[in-house]
Amino acid sequence: MGDDIKTAAEAEEAAAMPRVHEVHADPSKPNAAKNPVPKGVAKTPVANKSPAQWAYERLIIYLKNFEEQLDNEHEVAMGFTGGDAGVLRIEGMGYYDPDIVTFYGSDPTGSKTQLVQHVSQLNVMLRTLPKAVEQAEPNRIGFRLAQDLDAADDAAKDGVTDQT
User: Fold this and answer.
1) This prediction's pTM
2) Average pLDDT of the chain?
3) Which of 131, 20, 138 minimizes the C-alpha distance to 68?
4) How far apart are alpha carbons 146 and 152 in whole angstroms?
5) Smallest Cα–Cα separation from 108: which of 81, 135, 85?
6) At what angle do helices 51-67 and 141-157 cross, to 10 degrees?
7) In the beta sheet, which residues pair with residue 127?
């Protein structure tokens, strides 16, 4: 037991902050534990989040960290385990409370693809695909999703809520 005394606000903030720990063979490799958590993730205590929201927010952190390691010729995609489902270029992501996470995108042939998955079955392997040839810049969905979390935090402060 320590002699630290915490205010109610400090205790609330500590409960809201996600905890993450990663170790890599190469200590210079970026990892999600060393990056700041988007403001939108910390606004709600972990105990008050649905499994879907909590999985969605953590996936965004991992997506953004993965993209930070890519060159301008590649984009993030996810591979599927089991079966012959292939790869999905991640173009969007969402959740449906209390327990569904969904990924929107396309396969390497350009066919529209969507994965709807229960959080208890969530198993995501992040991969790279070459960016679309006609694009000048690679698509960085992880960065946009993190910005959306921060925008949601700002909207909540202004009294605006998303009811979709």
Assistant:
1) 0.72
2) 81
3) 138
4) 10
5) 85
6) 130
7) 77
